[in-house]
Amino acid sequence: MPAAIQDKPTAQAGKTPLVVRLLVLATFVVILNETLMINAIPRLMESLHVTEQAAQWVSTAFMLTMAAVIPVTGWFLQRVTTRQGYAIAMGVFLAGTALSAAAPTFAILLLGRIVQAAGTAVMMPLLMTTLMTVVPEQDRGRVMGNVTLAISVAPALGPAISGLILQLGSWRLLFVAVLPIAGAVTYFGLRQLDNIGEPQVSTLDWASAAMATLGFGGLVYGLSLFGEGESNLGPSIGIVIAGAALIAFFVLRQLKLQRTGAPLMDLRTLKHRTFTLSLALMCIAFLTMMGSMILLPLYLQNLRGLTPLQTGLLLMPGGLAMGLLGPTVGRLYDRLGSRPLVLPGSIGIVLSLAGFTQISMTMPYWQVLALHALLMVSLAATFTPIFTLGMGALPSNMYPHGSSILGTLQQVAAALGTALVVTVMSARATTLVAEGAVAGAAQLSGMKLAFVIATVLAVVTIVVAYLLPSRTAASGDVVAH
C-alpha cells in the first residue's frame, strides 16, 4: 500500500496548493518534449545524415520509453518522498536534454531522448497522485483543469513551438531553449516543494518489471513500425503479438501478486467501473487526437505546401483554446458534474473528425482552423472531467497505480492512433497509385479514409460518456463479482 498518501486532503477549499502548481509547470515543460521534434525531422536528416525512418525515432523512442517506464512508477513513488521523486525526475530530464543538445551523432541524440523520456515518465504519475491526495474532492475538477494544460495542451503545442524555434536556426536550439527553463523550474520547485506523506519500503517484482517494460515497450514499438512500409508488416505484426502476449503474462502475474504480495501495477483499480470507463474514453479520445496531429501537418505541408511554421501557427489557436478552457471546464465540472461536459465534448469530437473527412486541395484554411479548434475544445471538455471522475472513483491507496495505468495506456493509445492513421493512409494511397492515380490525389484519399476510421472510433466515446455517472464517491464505485 502506498504510504506516501495521506488519508485526507491538505489543501484549503478554493485554493490550488503550491505543490500542485509547481508539479503542473514541471509536467508541462517535460511533456512538451514528446512532440517537440516532429517538425525537426528534415533538419535531422540533413544535419546527421540519417534516413527519414531513422529520424522518426527521436519521437518514437520517447514514446516507447514512456510506455516502458511508467508501469514501474507506481512502485517507485511509494519508495520516495515527493521532493526526492521530483528531484530524480527533473534531474534525469535535464541530463537527457543536455545530452541531446550536445549530441555529436544520431545515436547519442537518441540516447538523450530516451533519458529525457525516463524523467518525463515519472512526472505525470507524481502530479496525479499528489493532486488526488492534497486537493479536496469538491475542488478537484478546477485543479484538474490546470492539469489538462500539461497533459493535453503540451503535446498539441509541441509542433507549433518547434516550428517557431526552427525558423531561428539548428534543431539543437529545441533543446537549448528547454534547458534553462527546465533548470529554473527544477531549482524553484525544490526550494518550494513540500513532502506529501511518507515513503514506504516495498520490494520490486523484477519479473513484473521486465514483462511490463518488454510488453508495453514492444507493443508501442510494433505499432510504430506499421507506417514504415509493407516490408515491415510481418515484423510489425510479430512484435505486436509478442508484446501483447507479454502483457497478458504480466496481467496474470499481477493477479497472482495481488493475492500473495504487492503487485507492480494493481489491477484491482479496474474493478472500479467508473475508472475503467474513464480509461476507455480517455484512450479513444487520445488516439483520435494523436491521429489528427499526425495527419493535419502531413496534409498542410505535403499537399497544401505550407511551411512547418505556417502549419504550427494555423494549428496553434486550437491548442491554446484547449489550454485556456481547461480551468473553466474544471470549474464547470465541480458545479455540474461530468455528463453536461463529456457528452457534448464527445459529440464535438465526432463532428470535427467527420468534418475532416471532407478535406480537399481547396478547403479554405479558416475551415481547417475551425475544425481543429472544435476538436481541441471538445477534447478539453472531455479530458478534464474524465481524469477527475476516473481517479476520484479510486480509494486513495490506489492513486499511484491508477495514474500509472492511465499514463501507460495513454502512450499505447498515442502509438496506436499514429500507427492506425498512417497505415490506413499509406495502404489506401499505395493501392490507388498502383491503379494509376496521381500521388497527391492518392495520399489525399488515404487521409480521408483515415479520418473516416477515426470518426467511427470516436462514436464509441459518445456511448461511454452516456454510461459514465455524473459524479462518483471516492471508493464506493466497485463492480460486483
Automatic annotation (TrEMBL):
Stored PANTHER family: MAJOR FACILITATOR SUPERFAMILY MULTIDRUG TRANSPORTER MFSC
Residue ranges occupied by any Major facilitator superfamily (MFS) profile domain in the UniProt entry: 19-473
Topology term for the membrane: Multi-pass membrane protein
Family of the protein in this entry: Belongs to the major facilitator superfamily. EmrB family.
Compartments it resides in: Cell membrane
Protein name: MDR family MFS transporter
UniProt KW keywords: Cell membrane, Membrane, Transmembrane, Transmembrane helix, Transport
Family matches, as CDD domains: MFS_LmrB_MDR_like
Transmembrane segments: 18-42, 54-77, 89-111, 117-135, 147-165, 171-190, 202-221, 233-253, 274-300, 312-329, 341-359, 365-394, 406-429, 449-468
UniProt superkingdom: Bacteria
InterPro entries, per the entry: EmrB-like (IPR004638), MFS (IPR011701), MFS_dom (IPR020846), MFS_trans_sf (IPR036259)
Main localization category: membrane
SUPFAM superfamilies, alphabetized: MFS general substrate transporter (SSF103473)
